[in-house]
UniProtKB/TrEMBL annotation:
Residues 9-94 form the Dynein heavy chain ATP-binding dynein motor region domain. Pfam families: AAA_9. GO terms for cellular component: dynein complex. PANTHER family: DYNEIN CYTOPLASMIC 2 HEAVY CHAIN 1, DYNEIN HEAVY CHAIN. This is Dynein heavy chain ATP-binding dynein motor region domain-containing protein. GO terms for biological process: microtubule-based movement. It comes from Hemiselmis andersenii. One of its GO terms (molecular function) is dynein intermediate chain binding.
Amino acid sequence: EIASDARPLVAQVNFSVTRSGLEGQLLGRTIQNEKPELERQKSELLKTEEEMKVRLSNLEKQLLEQLASSEGNILENKALIQALTDTKVSSQEIKQSLDNSHLVQVKLDNEREVYRNFARSGANVFFLIQALKSLNYMYQFDLPTYLHLFQSTLEASGTSEDVTQRLSILVTMLKRNIFNYVGRSLFKADRLTFGMHLVHGMNPEMFKEDEWEFFVGLLVANVSNSQVQIPEWVSADRRPALERLSATFPSLVMGLKLSQGGWDQWVQSPKPEARNEFPQSSSGLRPFQQMLVVQALRADRLQSAMEAFVTDGLGVAINLSTLNLGQVSSEVLPTTPIMFIVTPGA
C-alpha cells in the first residue's frame, strides 16, 4: 500500500495480463510465424506513417516560426510566400501518403484477421490454465512458459497451403500440447477434470444452455416440474437423477422415448457410453447430451463417458504416456527448473 503523501509522486502501472492484450501478442507471434512478410510490411508501414506525421508536424512548426519572424507586409515577402506554397504542397503530399498508407494498413489488417480466432483461442487457453489454481494452489503456470509452448506449437505443426486447414491443424496441436504439458503437472485424479474444463472452455458450441451447469451441479432442478413418466426398468436409485434431468431438460428426456424398446437393453450394457450402444431413438443427441443421459441412468460408467468425451474433444488420450525426460527437457527453456514429485507407491 502506497502512503497517501507519496501517491502523487508515484505512477502506478498495471502489469497484469489481459485477455485482449494477450490475444494481440499471440496474433503477432502467429503472423510472424505464418506470414512473416505481413508482419514486416505492417512494421514498415507504421514506421513510415510515424515519420510522415513527424515531418508534417515539423512543417507546421517551421511555418509558424516564419510567420512569427516575418517583418513588414506579408504579401510582399516573396520568401515567405514561397515557403507557404512549399509547405502547402508538402502537406498535401504527406496527407495523401497517409491516406494511401491507411488503405494499405486496412488490407494488411484484413489478411491478419484470418488468424485472429486462433490467437483468441490461445489467449482463452491461457486463462483456462490460470483457473486451475482454484483446484490446487500448486497448479500455477506463468506467461513466459505458456508463450514458449505456444511458439513451439507454431513451429512444430508443419505447413499447409490451405489457410483453413492450417488453422485447424494449429488448434488441434495446441489442444494436444497444452493437455500433455499441463497434464503431466497435475495429479492423476485431476487430469480428467482439467480435460473437461479445457473442452468446455475451447468448444462452447458443444454445450447447450444450462447443460454444463447442470452437469457440474451448479443448477438445481425442481423435480416437481418433471412431466416425464419414469419407466419401470429404471432402478430406484437412478429415478431421482432422471427426474432432475427431466425437470431441467424436459424436451431432451421426452425425445429419448424411454418407453420404447432398446433402453432396457441399453441400461444393462457393459459399455453404455459407446455411441453405437445408444438406441435409435436417441440418434439426435449431441455428445454431451449423451453423457448427461449416462450420468442420470448409468453413473457407474460416467468416468468412462467423460474420458471418451475429452478424447474426442481434444484429440488426445487422457492416459498420458510414460514420462520421457528427454521430451520434457526439449519442451522447456534452459532456465526453467524441473521439479519431480514422487508419491509413495509410484
